[in-house]
Write a structure and sequence with these properties.
InterPro entries: Hyethyz_kinase, Ribokinase-like. The chain has about 270 residues and is α/β, with parallel strands linked by helices. Helix content is about 55%, strand content about 15%.
């Protein structure tokens, strides 16, 4: 284990609490409230701003932009493209969650348009979505990945090189890379798959960490470690999905740099 990398990841958690980054979220309606609450509990400031007439100027005020393609309606699509353009102009980091891109061709059109006129610093998706974007065969069912993770890191690296950004693929193991440095995280609990929006909440946390620190690779690692370790702690206190969802928010709030360092199961490559 690279202790300096882990120490940096823990410090980014502290930076989030110190700086309270403003995370501008254009996300799906199923989990918008969960994303807002988990950001607040993490120490960040959420803004769920998606009106086309407002997003360009609002991005200028933000620490990061989080775009989630889950339930995109036309105004969200137009707003996300305009917001990403503003982010490029004003050098605001952008996190993209390409929800259901392997199942809905329209999502790919939106992603391509964002890259044409804006920018993306981090792509965070499940393993099936990431493998699909990397041009590999993937096993998905709607918004869910049924992929076993074989070849996931290689797909992340290929996609990172293709788009020159950090890529994270989540599943039973989580794979993160910037094309040169990589990490494999084995923290977490299957209970995270029993509540709606765990992946969306994680994407929002990636916005918080990337808004707090310029090291987007380590920032993404920090967000994933935070979610997974909080999930493990929540599972100790809850035996069903309903109570787990509440405890997850509590455990994100209670997460410390020490807990993040001590509870980590990570391999650096």
């Amino acid at each position: 284990m690279n202790n300096s990398n882990l120490q940096k990841a823990a410090e980014i958690l502290g930076e989030v609490r110190e700086k309270a980054p403003l995370v501008h979220c254009i996300t799906n309606y199923v989990t918008i409230n969960d994303c807002a609450n988990i950001l607040l509990s993490y120490g960040a400031s959420p803004a769920m701003c998606e009106a086309y007439d407002e997003v360009f100027d609002f991005v200028k005020l933000s620490s990061a932009l989080y775009i989630n393609l889950g339930t995109f309606v036309k105004e969200q699509e137009q707003a996300a493209i305009l917001a990403s353009t503003s982010a490029k102009i004003h050098n605001v980091p952008v996190v993209l969650d390409p929800v259901a891109c392997a199942a809905v061709p329209k999502k790919i059109q939106i992603i391509n348009r964002i890259f044409q006129v804006g920018k993306i610093d981090v792509i965070k998706g499940n393993i099936g979505e990431i493998k699909f974007l990397a041009g590999q065969s993937s096993n998905v069912k709607g918004v869910d990945s049924l992929d076993n993770g074989e070849g996931a890191l290689e797909s992340c690296i290929a996609l990172s090189h293709k788009y020159n950004c950090v890529v994270a693929a989540t599943g039973e193991k989580d794979f993160i890379t910037d094309g040169k440095n990589s990490a494999i995280i084995e923290n977490g609990t299957k209970m995270l798959t029993k509540v709606t929006g765990a992946g969306c909440m994680l994407g929002a946390l990636c916005g918080a960490t990337c808004g707090a620190d310029q090291d987007k690779f380590t920032a993404t690692v920090t967000a994933i470690l935070s979610m997974n370790i909080a999930g493990e702690e929540a599972f100790k206190k809850a035996t069903s999905p309903g109570s787990f969802r509440v405890k997850l928010i509590d455990c994100i709030y209670e997460l410390s740099e020490e807990k993040l360092r001590e509870g980590t199961k990570i391999t650096w490559k």
